[in-house]
Amino acid sequence: MVTKTETASPATPPRAGLTYRPNVDVRDRGTEVVLVADMPGANAATIDVTFEDGVLSLHGAVAPRAFTARVIRQEYGIGDYRRSLRLGDGFDGARIDADYRQGVLTIRVPRLAAVLPRKVEVRAG
Amino acid sequence: MPAYRTGFALPLDELRDEIDRLWTTLVTAPPLHGWGQRSEESVFPAVNLRETDEAFTVEAELPGISVNDVDISVSGDSLVLKGARRAVDTAADCVAASGADRPVEAPASEKVVWLLRERGSGAFERRLKLPVAVDSLRVEARLVDGVLTVVCPKLAACQPRKVEVRGG
Predict the structure, then answer these.
(1) The complex's ipTM?
(2) pLDDT per residue over A3-42, tens digit each?
(3) Of B30, B33, B61, which is closest to A76 when you measure between CB atoms?
(4) What are the chain A neighbours of B92 within 8 Å (beta carbons)?
(5) Rounded CA gap, B63 and A76, in Å?
């Protein structure tokens, strides 16, 4: 689903200044959680990713575009992207990696080594 | 003759269909137009269309789709956008789909555990009728940060022209 959902009033016609909730895929790989968000028209320099108290928040500022042309058809709005997801505890916020390409933001949130399954060696006496 | 009345035993079939449908939503990526919408009502990609005296500008959001996966054709007053977005089934694909160039150490047999799956995939085709014919030789398109912009200059004959009135 690539259709954007307005987080303000859905009845409001699309216009600049609104915030949009990007569609995301979230996948658990065991050692990390990978989040992929559709954020077309954003800019790597203006995307903020924060991780605090187990909540991953992303915000992408999208500059309003100035058009002098007449609008014939307006099917989607242009505005900032904002979304928060609760991932829970056991993640290493310091090693979060984010990459923005082709309008898609990919965030990899690694789990803390201490919470990963570990095989314990038994020492011989 | 069936041993049950139509409409009596059928709810079990409906339940099975419903379970199949739910299972499908869990194991496959959503279609590009999203779940919960009938395909005949689907519109992908959404477009914004603007007009100046000289040209039409069509903008469409195509996140995660590379230049090679979009096909644009123009003829007269019709513009067709065609393409596809691959389904992402592994974490390696997640990173590959976003174009990251770092090596991914995902094992081939890795289990897919989806926590959320909202991004659609599959083929799309959008046909747009422009108000007047455009000059197909001068149509230009570019895809930047997942936003496709197609500039279609109008044919000279279709552009507004100021007519001089000659004095008698």
Answers:
(1) 0.78
(2) 454 444 333 344 445 789 999 999 998 889 999 999 999 9
(3) B61
(4) none
(5) 14
